[in-house]
Amino acid sequence: MIIYLLLTILSSTCLLVILKSFYYWKINILHGIIFNYYTAATLSFMVQPTGIMNHFHELGSLWYVTATIGLLFIIVFYITGKTTQQLGVSVASIASKMSMVIPITAGLLLYDETMGIQKISGILLAIPAVVLVSIPGSKQEGIHFKISDMWLPVMLFFGAGLVDTAIKYTQYAFMNDGNRQLVIMSIFASAGIFGGMRLLYEIFVQKKKFLWRSVGGGLLLGTTNYLSLYFLLKCLEDPASESSTVFAYVNIGVVITSFATGMLLFAEKPERNKIIGVILSLMAIAVLSY
Predict the structure, then answer these.
(1) Crossing angle (nearest 10°) for helices 2-24 and 59-87
(2) Are 217 and 25 spatial neighbours (Cβ–Cβ below 8 Å)?
(3) What three-state secondary structure class fits 92?
(4) Rounded to an integer, what distance in angstroms lies between the CA atom of residue 107 and that of residue 59?
(5) Phi, psi of 268 (to 5 degrees)
(6) How would DSSP label each residue in 126-167?
(7) Is 188 within 8 Å of 41 (Cβ atoms)?
(8) 148 or 29: which carries more pLDDT confidence?
(9) Alpha helices (H) along 143-270
(10) 89 in helix, strand or coil?
(11) Has this prediction a pTM greater than 0.90?
């Protein structure tokens, strides 16, 4: 499982970097996200076309589950992109990744996973960590913080936690080796359909201009997005692991790598409150992990 954990961390960090880069590439973030889902759905089919067709009849009993998750995907992904661009990579990363307290709690309550003082302490440490890293002490290069932006990390925290919880539930209740690619494809396709409706509204009703570079950005983002979900599911399917432990390991890796990436690639300054928040985040994840 170690290899899948490392690949999940790498691909998840790349997602945030690509979303941040949309700003510099002049890509409409929503349009890029929409084509990202079409790309991910296509990749899901290409990986195992025969297997998907053999299990296609199962979609009738799964469509409402995958459609719900698909809708959550595109909403949370959009919020992630806005948070990344307005408040920085590290803020988006920690707000989304510390939301692991939600699926961890769900794992403890729904799947009879182990519970002790360590996990409770880790969850309690997570809350101030998110608050600290979400409030930069001063203006960063290219980032202008406003109190009105605080809804972004807050919504991202709860939205990302809900998505992770839904993914774990789907893997636990509906997924097996035979239909894995079908489920992944239908989730991404559902997100693409909802996003496509929004795109058509913007183009034909709001008369917004569509830039074809958004397709290229979507191809890159979608490939990474597919890999991120696939590797995460492989981690969750390991019979020797608990979902609470998986989310803890994944998130500590993403927090560290994305915080470093924000400083190295986007000149995000490691201000005092953010450093304290990162330290608390690492402490929380370490406590939850062991």
Answers:
(1) 60
(2) yes
(3) helix
(4) 26
(5) -75, 130
(6) HHHHHHHHTS-SSPBTTB---GGGGHHHHHHHHHHHHHHHHH
(7) yes
(8) 29
(9) 151-173, 180-204, 213-237, 243-266
(10) helix
(11) no
Residue 116: CA count within 13 A, CB half-sphere: 7
The tokens for 57 are 């009849």
**Nearest-10 Cα torsion for 157, 163, 168, 174:** 170
Say if residues 206 and 251 touch (Cβ distance below 8 Å).
no
What confidence tier does 289 reach under pLDDT thresholds 50, 70, 90?
low
Find out whether 254 and 7 touch, Cβ atoms under 8 Å.
no
Phi, psi for 139 (deg, rounded to 5)? -70, 130
Q: Give the contacts of 112 (CB within 8 A, at least 6 positions apart).
A: none
Q: Residue 256's pLDDT is what?
A: 76
